[in-house]
């Protein structure tokens, strides 16, 4: 016997009433034929992307998170200018090697995309502690990179300044979109 006999009886009565009302044409209005697009009233967006990746090759995918933030805001109906948005990308994992000048050929596409965003006002910051752990100096990095004392202090500081924290999740895809549709 179910521990909730009254609940089971109530569920049967609701199902029966729904069936009767539906047959009589009195059921709730049918759902809309398609999803509705909304235009959220975004204003003065400030975001801190916290990059802490387990493999530098994942930086290319992580940068799509930046694109997914920037593109909708710079296109109609929002049409924000670059100066309307404040964006910081904080690097403190294996992705640090992508901004080392000696690795530019290996990560050419990633560096080109970061350079493009930097020219549009996106700040790229590297954790000074992690930089030392990787054996690099500020002089060895791309010129669009700024070195912060610590990723942890940067995370706290910018959140205290009202920046939203976004932590890109880059997973290894096991299935294609076509396979799961």
Notes on the structure:
Keywords: Signal. It holds the Pfam family DsrE. The chain is α/β, with parallel strands linked by helices and 181 residues long. It has a domain of 121 residues: Hypothetical Protein Ychn, Chain: A, CATH 3.40.1260. It contains six helices and five strands. The chain has a five-stranded parallel beta sheet with strand order 4-3-2-1-5, sandwiched between helices. Strand 2, helix 3 and strand 3 form a beta-alpha-beta unit. The longest helix has 19 residues. The radius of gyration is 25 Å and the shape is globular. The two termini are 40 Å apart. The mean pLDDT is 89.
Gist?
The protein has helices at 5-23, 59-74, 108-119, 128-133, 151-160, 177-180; strands at residues 46-51, 86-91, 123-127, 145-148, 164-166.
List the helices and strands and how they pair.
Elements: H1 5-23, E1 46-51, H2 59-74, E2 86-91, H3 108-119, E3 123-127, H4 128-133, E4 145-148, H5 151-160, E5 164-166, H6 177-180
Parallel strand pairs: 1-2, 1-5, 2-3, 3-4
Strand order of the largest sheet: 4-3-2-1-5
- Tally the beta strands: 5
**Any idea what the CATH architecture of the domain at 46-166 is?**
3-Layer(aba) Sandwich
Q: Over all CA atoms, what is the radius of gyration?
A: 25 Å
Structural class: alpha/beta
Largest sheet: 5 strands, parallel
Regarding CATH, which class of the domain at 46-166? Alpha Beta
Instruction: Measure the end-to-end span.
Output: 40 Å
List unreliable stretches of 5+ residues: none
Mean pLDDT: 89
* CATH fold group of the domain at 46-166: Hypothetical Protein Ychn, Chain: A
What general outline do the C-alpha atoms trace?
Answer: globular
Binned strand content: 5-15%
How many helical elements? 6
Write the CATH homologous superfamily of the domain at 46-166: DsrEFH-like
User: Helix coverage percent of residues?
Assistant: 25-40%
User: What's the helix-strand series?
Assistant: HEHEHEHEHEH
